[in-house]
Amino acid sequence: ILIMRLLIFIYIFVSIIFTGCSDKNENSKKIINDDKKVEKKEIKKLSKQDIFLEVFIKDNKIYSKSSKTILLIFANKKDPYSKKLEEDITYNKELQELLKTSLNSYYININEEKRYKQFYNNQFMNVDMKTLMAIYSIKATPSIIFTNNQAKVILSIPGYMPVEQLISTIKFIKSKKYQGLKPNSKELLKALKQHYIQDNITLNKN
């Protein structure tokens, strides 16, 4: 009887030890898996940021050697509408493609102490952020500025524009429907509004 009790005791003791080890292994696996999930999220986050940055020209020269229209986006990282526009660009492939292939696109963070080379009178001027914002009359963020290949303004849009409307606006500029109309004129805005109607874009009445 004593021997049987001893064997039962040993069996229970060994079972407890193995159960503890098994639990530790499971916990270790869970921690490793959780760490991998965090890493994947970080990689995904970085890759999305890379996608956003790849759309824009890194050069600080605001100029186009080709006949491509220039797009300047003035943004403030602390502004929720600038962040919304950044999300639109990051997640909308059609918008990304238009920004990369149809325009020379620049993303200008007004919080950066960065200098730009602004093309003016057939030469480049070295300007700071304050001067650049004054040149394009930037009073709100985001501001979307379309210019010709020598950085002369075609159309200025202060404030956030919904993604479908922005895509339609780029297509309007790409089609050259603005040609023969004065920059930012009532006639140009009327032509743009007509383009929106044809493109089934619903405008906010406000």
Structural class: alpha/beta
Low-confidence stretches: none
What is the fold-level CATH name, i.e. the topology of the domain at 51-160?
A: Glutaredoxin
Outline the biggest β-sheet. 4 strands, mixed
Rg value: 29 Å
Number of strands: 7
Quaternary state reads single chain
- Please name the fourth-level CATH homologous superfamily of the domain at 51-160: Glutaredoxin
Q: Count of helices?
A: 6
Strand order of the largest sheet: 3-2-6-7
Describe the protein's architecture and organization.
This protein is α/β, with parallel strands linked by helices and 206 residues long. The chain has a domain at 51-160: Glutaredoxin, CATH 3.40.30.10. It is 51% helix and 18% strand. The chain is built from six helices and seven strands. It has helices at 2-54, 80-91, 93-101, 129-135, 163-174, 186-198; strands at residues 61-62, 69-75, 103-109, 116-120, 123-127, 143-147, 153-158. It has a four-stranded mixed beta sheet with strand order 3-2-6-7. A three-stranded mixed beta sheet has the order 1-4-5. It is elongated, with a radius of gyration of 29 Å. The N and C termini lie far apart (92 Å). The model has no long low-confidence stretch (mean pLDDT 83).
